[in-house]
Write a structure and sequence with these properties.
The chain has about 325 residues and is an alpha/beta fold. It folds into 3 domains: about 5-50, Orthogonal Bundle (434 Repressor (Amino-terminal Domain)); about 60-155 and about 290-315, Response regulator (Rossmann fold, 3-Layer(aba) Sandwich); about 160-285, Rossmann fold, CATH 3.40.50.2300. Helix content is about 45%, strand content about 15%. A 6-stranded parallel sheet has the order 2-1-3-4-5-11, with helices on both faces. The chain has a 4-stranded parallel sheet with strand order 7-6-8-9, with helices on both faces. Helix 2 (about 15-20) packs across helix 3 and helix 10 (about 220-230) packs across helix 11. It is elongated. This is Transcriptional regulator. One of its GO terms (molecular function) is transcription cis-regulatory region binding. Keywords: DNA-binding, Repressor, Transcription, Transcription regulation.
Amino acid sequence: MRVTADDVARAAGVSRAMVSRAFTDGASISVAKRTHVRAVAEELGYHPNLIARGLTGSRTGLVAVVVGAVARPYEAWLLEHLGQAVRKTGSWPLLIQVGPDDEVDSALENALAYQVDGAIVAAGSVSKRLAERCKSVGVPVVLVGRILNDESADSVCCDNRQGMAEIVDFLVARGRRKIAWIGGTADTFSNLERFAGLKIGLAAQGLEIFDIRQGDYSLDSGLAQGLALLTSPQLPDAIVCGNDAMAMGVVDAARRLKIAVPDQLSIVGFDDIPAAAWDPYLLTTSRNPVQETVDAALELLVSRIADDTQPFRSVRLAAKLVVRSSA
């Protein structure tokens, strides 16, 4: 049977309110009394109900972390850093995973029932209506990987267009002119921005995209689209992918077809996940700075919890070209 605060109160010979104060930071209670109550609670195996604490207006120490497909390398890497960063603030992450067809709004609505202190959304987008509802109940939201044009939430995002412009300049400087694109999931923020950045970068060089294919950010889709591109009548001399996983698939496709990389074909990804540096790939890519992204997201969240009246902020972090032997 679950041990309650009433059980602790009876065993410790104090009131139930005293038990509550013993587990509330800053509450009015002597050190000796707090130590006594907590010792009795530990002996009984009692743990305070964070949800009930939230109903009284106190902080629960829970931060909702909304993520997408954690099986994908970048998302898993980001989640690992997010979880560690939330713990360093003294809070606990409440993981909420959403699928491709799930509404982030509905997932976040459910998180509000757990009386979370805030939310970090690293999948999909949040409607202005829900952002305003979160603000009205004192739950700040920080978006990772996208920027809201209506400025209804704080956000942090890699400068996707700048990263793509550097990739184009790098490839053109190496004599590449027939540059093809394999995009990720069509309507995602990162795909739209990276594709736009590629087009702008090519236009600045007097070039157009040589060919366009659509993947879904997975290695398998990169392999499939890479095989299609590399068996077509007109071959590209460079393939730029919307993320590293697809670029790794293209490397596998080139290896199957015995196309020399980078002598005959340059292959470039985006994100610089740990696997990009593995020997089978040694992928040239644009680094999407995960640790800096997480640090900025937590700084925005903590700042918003402390002062909900400040203007919303959007942080853009510079991408960095990382040159390896695939291009």
